[in-house]
Design goal:
heterodimer, A: mainly alpha, 434 Repressor (Amino-terminal Domain), two-stranded antiparallel ribbon, 5 helices, 2 strands, globular, B: mainly alpha, 83% helix, 0% strand, flat
Chain lengths: 73, 149
Amino acid sequence: MGKSRVGNAIRRLRFDHDEMTQKALAEKVGVTRQTIVAIEKANYSPSLELAFLIARVFGKPLEEVFFFAAESE
Amino acid sequence: MSKQELRIATGSVTNTVIFIVFLIIIIGLYQDGRFDGDGAGRLVGQSVLILIGAQIVGNIVVAILTAISRAIITGEEEEPDITDERDKLIELRALRLTFILFGVAFVGTAVALSLGAALFTAFLMIIIAFAVSDLVGNALRLVLYRRGF
């Protein structure tokens, strides 16, 4: 539990995509809005499949959406 | 409070209230001597079935009333009932804790029986363990939903 070491740029990417709402993103990838909130806050690491789906919504490669926060080691 | 959290909280309260009422009735029956003699096993079976039935009906009624109240208070449309990967993981973790607690209590009951505890005591221990482990599992669900995971 607690903060995941997998960070993400979802919040910025949503902003860059016409201020897409969390609800809209959740509907596009088939999860609840609460799951998107948890991922954005790095409280939950999504499965690889969900991570790819989110990256696809923003038209970005996976590594531009998610990154491994190695500095917290 | 999200839809899932509300469902878990109302479910826990419903189950706890029904269980307390059940416990009061069962202890009353015990004091009347209904758990002595040949019909005790049958009464135990019937009472467990009644408890399960009451909890199922109670949860359905409360879930419907909660959904209606929520829609009236918030004025929002009911969100689609999606169960995603995080919901499933939370469910698995909570179920694991519930099973572990119930398993420990079950062994504890076996130990109590082997030490000479009465059958009614064992029955009470089992159903209290069932209720408490379910409640603790629901508490973990709420914590995980609150934290994100």
